[in-house]
Amino acid sequence: MTDLYGIIYAYHSYAGLNDLVSDRTSASLPFCSRYRLIDFALSSMTNAGIRDVGIVMQRNYQSLLDHLEGGKDWDLARSGQGGLRLMPPYGTHDLDSGEYRGCMEALAAMRSYISDIPKNSVVLFRGDLAINIDLKDAYKHHLASGKEVTAICTDKAFDSGSDCVRFIEDQKGVSRHMHFRHTSSREGLESTEVYIIQKSLLVELVDWSRKNGKLHFHRDALARYLRNGGSVNLYVHKGYAAHICSVADYYAANLDMLSSRYRADLFPEERPVYTKGRSSVSTFYGSTAKVSNSLIADGCYIEGEVENCVLFRGVRVAKGAVLKDCVIMQDTSVGRDSQLTCVIADKDVFFSVGIVLTGSRSLPLYVPKGKEI
Q1: Of 173, 292, 322, 339, which alpha carbon lies 20 to 30 A from 184's?
Q2: Termini Cα distance of the chain
Q3: Taking 50 as the threshold, does the pLDDT of residue 93 lie above it?
Q4: pTM metric for this prediction
């Protein structure tokens, strides 16, 4: 047990994810054949001994609720004090629609909840990251620094089209300056947008933001803190890190998991990643099946050819079908003699006999949930 409370942002999905988030939040996107993106934030907290976690939601969160089921798979299903708290949009006079325009607005809407947090420090964690952070070590680093805020940074820039936040070191491990640049800039250390912050300071920033109509953590609250003489401790995460902001990000991160080096980074034995359990039979491979360099979940039925693909539970690939460089989600069926290249298929898609679809690694084709082609 540690003196940390966890808050996971699961309310925001980038527009670049398009139909992938039409009926789900990005935090609940399926990933790496059996996980959801939020599993990484939850598991990082569980492995650090954090037993109090709040999840900030906004809309399209039914799939997230179905996945979490009270938090039992992350040892967060607790009666009484502690456990997992699900926080849908709070109605306030400033927030009639339930649509948060920035994380400070989201936190301001639950100001009374934050003030009652029974811990001295809070971890703010994005729910759309594929990252496995050693929060126990980061917290030790935070305490040793004596700073009110620790920014967890990566020494490998996110390969993403989104703007990023970078911290410039004024002295070893400390920053008083940050800037916002596209990922093509390599100056400074890139933030993962995961922070450890003293609760008292968080409450102060929330109150200031609400009073002054400010919406954003970096551009508004943290920028003011730094201008007023504050400084940020920098902790560098050296493992795999991906921020899922677009369809291309999602596709690339899944295919990254075909690399044993990246898998070892994201799934180290000492920090396991937990997810919702589902009982499935072992995958069946027919006499005509040919599978190479692919991740295949349980419960699949493979009779065709699968190369450089990520297949989730219950996928069926008929005889004569050929899949290359594809991400195929749960319970999708690929018909006989079909050919799919660089395709993302959502859940419960049905590909008829002989269908041919070809995308590219930079522009994969996406087939929506439940579609029949």
Answers
A1: 173
A2: 51
A3: no
A4: 0.94
